[in-house]
Amino acid sequence: MAMENDVLTRELAAYIRKNLRPEGLKLQDILDINIRHGAAPGLGGAKWALEFLLKNLELTFSEKLIELIGEKGRKASEIYVKAGITKTHFSKIKADKDYHPTKETALAFAIALHLDIEETSDLLRRAGYSISHSSESDLIVEFYIKKGIYNIDRINNQLDLRGHKTLTNWRKTKDS
User: CA–CA separation, 18 vs 89, rounded Å?
Assistant: First the structure.
């Protein structure tokens, strides 16, 4: 197990070196480009776009989470326990369709559900987040998902070792 962890740790370090982008295109840069090129919508266009979006709302994070649990054929209790979420917290998420989780909670559910990277990105987007290549912690989680390793303790261990916030209230074991 120790040798496997060493190999995985080296692969993770190489993955981060290859994909980390600390400086990315910022929203303000996009807005400046659009305004300079006359792409800013008029008031009528903005009103129409808002009405269209409101009519075509997609599932919220909470609604999509419940749908995914059903689609994966899993019990809700199995998923929230694997995600490190209490029954009370999960009940709150389930009861409030507009519930806004932390990014770590959303990622913990993605890991517990064994979502691939596209499914994870979709679930995160519904909570208002994304996986960013300018964030080392995001790359760590992405690496494990792409490897098909859905062990939240191993992910939390790597996050902790590299000085990042863990996905759950994880504590190091005596063997770590």
Answer: 37
Strand, coil or helix: 59: coil
pTM of the predicted protein model? 0.73
pLDDT tens sequence across 8-62:
888 988 888 887 766 554 444 444 444 444 445 555 566 666 666 666 568 899 9
The span from the CA of 148 to the CA of 102, in Å, is: 23
Cβ pair 69, 79 in contact under 8 A: yes
- What's the distance, Cα to Cα, between the start and end of the chain in Å? 12
Condensed to tens digits (0 to 9), the pLDDT of residues 92-147 reads 999 999 999 999 999 999 999 999 999 999 999 999 999 999 999 999 999 999 99
Cα distances (Å, whole numbers) of residue 136 to 21, 89, 132, 160: 9, 28, 8, 12
Q: What is the mean pLDDT of the chain?
A: 83
The residues, any chain, with a CB within 8 Å of residue 155's CB and separated by 6 or more, are: 111, 140, 141, 144, 149, 167
Q: Which of 117-155 are b and which e, b meaning 16 or more Cβ less than 10 Å from the residue's Cβ?
A: eebbbbbbebbebebebebbbbbbbbbbbeeeebebeeb
3-state secondary structure of 20: coil
Q: What are phi and psi of 23, to 5 degrees?
A: -115, 115
